[in-house]
Amino acid sequence: MFGGHHRRRSGPRGPLLAQGLVRAGLRVAVYEREAAVDQRTQGYRIHVGQEGDLALRACLPPELYERAVATSGVLGSGVSFLDPQLQVVHRLEVPPDSADSAGQHLVVDRVTLRRILLTGLDVRHGSPFERYELLDDGRVRVFFAGGEVADADLLVAADGTHSRIRAQLLPDAEVVETGQFLIYGKTPLIPRVRELAPAAALDGFSIVNGPDGRYMPLAAFESRTGTGVEDYLMWVVGAPGSLRSAVESAVDGRGLQEAAAKLIADWPAALGELVRLGDPRSVHSTTVRTAEPVPPWRSVPVTVMGDAIHTMVPTGNSAAVAMRDAALLCRRIVERRGSLLDAVHEYEAEMLDYGFAAVARSLRGA
Predict the structure, then answer these.
(1) The domain over range 2-76+98-175+290-365 is classified in CATH as 3.50.50.60
(2) By its UniProt entry, which Pfam families does this protein fall under (predicted)?
(3) Which of 23, 106, 200, 202 has the CA that lies 20 to 30 A from 132?
(4) What is the pLDDT of residue 230?
């Protein structure tokens, strides 16, 4: 069983684990907090690094993996760092696409990938997690809002930074604020937007960095094969908490959109126009958080993965690390020679090592 208690944006790790386990012949149910609705405005461009690609290959049936690659976006040639005058001050080249055993870099639309990953799964929508109980027979009983109860051999928390499952399993685990906040959205990639956007944002990933802690990532999503996903420019306006009063009066996406444009009003006018041309339904805000390292714990038939355990600041690798979690846990379960708890313990030991190493790297990168 996979416990899915998602917030606004649902990640790929839970459904990916479920696909791998179902492919191995195991019975899995995916529980989602939210109702089954089409969240078209909730999807953004995300980067899937090589370890994420390898996880997709390991867990998905070949036809779903091929669909994920076919619906991915144009990768672009690199990552560019710009100053507030939009001059490139540093650039990192992205290696060419590779389909070999080392994995490839992918750019995917979050909603499109999620639809692919949910294909064929038993998904129970509108089931917010409330609590669990460990049973005497070594299984776990899970209680959901509305009175639904389910017993399982294993409950896996893939419910994100604010995981309620982690809160019960590891009440001392800490997620801390970094003192930054983000307003993010997407703008349809119409001709006017192509004219306004820095060239680097149309050829990979770019980030405008100011000297006062403000920054603005920009990246286009352009589908490779015209799969029905509207091409768009993803944008984020990040700022230190001292400027957060600028968004306190915003009550909806349109208000946040205007607040984001005002936060960068002294930067080139094209950037503010890009924000204002965006779809207000796609605009949201959040704060930037990171997880404190967690020491090993006694394994029980409840475990965690992705942001539910190693939340990290956004530097482009969190999705791949979460996917690595899913593939590793799947492999440990399917290939186990001892008990299920032995497999879970092996997963947790390895995941804590590389997961919090990735958290540390993300902090250095930020």
Answers:
(1) yes
(2) FAD_binding_3
(3) 23
(4) 83
Query: Tens digit of pLDDT for each residue in 145-193?
Result: 989 999 999 999 999 999 999 999 999 999 999 999 999 999 999 999 9
Strand partners, 291: 175
Is the CA virtual torsion 342, 348, 351, 353 positive or negative?
A: negative
User: How big is the chain by its Cα radius of gyration, in Å?
Assistant: 20
From first CA to last CA, the distance across the chain in angstroms is: 35
Count of alpha carbons within 13 angstroms of residue 92, beta-carbon side? 6
The closest alpha carbon to 239, from 312, 280, 161, 184, belongs to 184
Give the strand pairing for 204-209 and 78-82.
parallel
H-helix segments, the chain: 13-23, 50-59, 62-70, 110-117, 164-169, 191-196, 253-263, 269-276, 307-310, 318-334, 340-365
Give the tens place of pLDDT for each residue, 139-158.
999 999 989 999 999 999 99
Q: In the sheet that 215-221 helps form, which strands lie side by side, from edge to edge?
A: 88-93, 78-82, 204-209, 215-221, 232-240, 175-188, 284-291
Distances in Å between the Cα of 37 and the Cα atoms of 32, 111, 119, 134, 139 are 11, 11, 15, 32, 32
Q: What is the pLDDT of residues 105-140, one digit of tens each?
A: 899 999 899 999 999 999 998 889 999 999 999 999
Distance between CA atoms of residues 121 and 146, nearest Å: 22
For the record, the structure tokens of 230 come out as 């509207």
CATH of domain 179-288: 3.30.9.30
Domain definitions of the chain by residue range: 2-76+98-175+290-365, 179-288
Residue 273, φ and ψ in degrees, nearest 5: -65, -40
Give the residue among 114, 176, 167, 162 at the shortest CA–CA distance from 359.
Answer: 176
